[in-house]
């Protein structure tokens, strides 16, 4: 058993409600495992900051339905309580064609990858968060509609968010009473509880010096705003008496430099776990703060993040930029996703049009703009590259406001939208051959061959000593 926190639409306060629950549970010294539906990186950072445990992404597009079930079962059983934060509105998924059971076996659209889809996959009850700031009696129609829309979804109750006054709350309760749907929480309008955001969503945890004070205020709120008598049994998971941690003996000593700081921090924890399970030692370092790349490493991994926000500081660290370029030119296998790709470019052009020199590995520049590129991608490899063989299909996600001024002459992938055949063009840099630089974020949970191939290449180069 566990709970899914869902919203009736985006922006109703799912993350605030989730963090409030997590903060209050941790204040009670409860061991709690959190999950996030979808490809999100930033919300899981907040979860981890509160719980002290990595948040796990549940995404059947990037992985599979079976992986979502296995991931949830494995990690929820290692804690006392489990909580899943949904994505968008409860039934907001992506177009996904599958054969229907009607006459003619027609194709039909589903709510694939929605919060409702995950609730059905895991057979978990849902708490519906409703933004009450601009309604009163209509709350019953919303709650009734969501409860009756899909009989397979079990709505355990509602959380009323942004309630304005006692009179407002009274009207909401009177409206909901005929439904006999439990009100599991009431959050008043909180002007002093605000998480700042910017062009790609919330500002990450590493950039918020007042975050602990904010979490304390959320814990205070959580202690009083929820019906804990009803919530705690729903949140309870079944911990294993003797958790089994599979042992994966290292095949050989491989050290991978993982760029992790305020500029680069978008990583799926499962990807990092897989590298370790396959025998790699992860060496975390900062292209912002360190004076050199880590010593005695055989590969580098630059995740996504906000290099455009810290472009000046990255540019001023010329010793690290030069070291990164030198290592790659000499053959260091390197993965660079999104923000990492931007760092390997000749320069980043920020929102004000100012240019900042970067590592200069790729003969192009990353220019920031107002257009948001967002969505799941089906990507077919056009050539053998550092991570996959030619003609291999992978599924990933793009989320960025930058574009490259020059496109690669020999791109890694031909991409299309996941939910239709719309071609999204070719992208990704694989020259030099030891680099995989792409805007497409990949989750390796159902593709262990990707980190395996990466580590094999690291071993080859390390044994040759060509880059040292």
Characterise the protein shown here.
The protein is of the alpha/beta class. It folds into 2 domains: 3-235, Rossmann fold, CATH 3.40.50; 254-464, Class I glutamine amidotransferase (GATase) domain (Rossmann fold), CATH 3.40.50. It is 29% helix and 29% strand. It is built from 13 helices and 25 strands. The strands form 6 sheets. It has a 7-stranded parallel β-sheet, sandwiched between helices. Strands 18, 19, 20, 21, 22, 23 and 25 form a 7-stranded mixed β-sheet that branches. A hairpin with a 2-residue loop joins strand 10 and strand 11. The longest helix is centred in the last third of the chain and has 16 residues, at 449-464. The chain starts with a strand and ends with a helix. Mean pLDDT is 92; it is low at 99-107.
Number of helical regions: 13
Q: What best-fitting shape do the alpha-carbon axes yield?
A: elongated
Main sheet summary: 7 strands, parallel
Termini separation comes to 52 Å
Q: What share of the residues lie within helices?
A: 25-40%
Mean pLDDT rating: 92
What is the count of β-strands?
25
Give the C-level CATH assignment of the largest domain.
Alpha Beta
Strand order of the largest sheet: 3-2-4-1-7-8-9
Radius of gyration: 23 Å
Tell me the strand percentage band. 25-35%
In CATH, the homologous superfamily of the largest domain goes by the name P-loop containing nucleotide triphosphate hydrolases
Write the layout of secondary structure elements.
Blueprint: E1 3-7, H1 14-27, E2 32-37, H2 42-51, E3 56-58, H3 65-76, E4 81-89, E5 97-99, E6 107-109, H4 115-122, E7 126-131, H5 139-149, E8 155-163, H6 166-176, E9 183-188, E10 197-198, E11 201-202, H7 211-225, H8 228-235, E12 254-259, E13 264-266, H9 269-277, E14 280-285, E15 299-302, E16 304-305, H10 311-316, H11 318-329, E17 334-337, H12 339-344, E18 345-349, E19 355-357, E20 362-381, E21 393-404, E22 413-417, E23 423-427, E24 435-438, E25 441-442, H13 449-464
Parallel strand pairs: 1-4, 1-7, 2-3, 2-4, 7-8, 8-9, 12-14, 12-15, 15-17, 17-24, 18-20
Antiparallel strand pairs: 5-6, 10-11, 13-16, 18-19, 20-21, 20-22, 21-25, 22-23
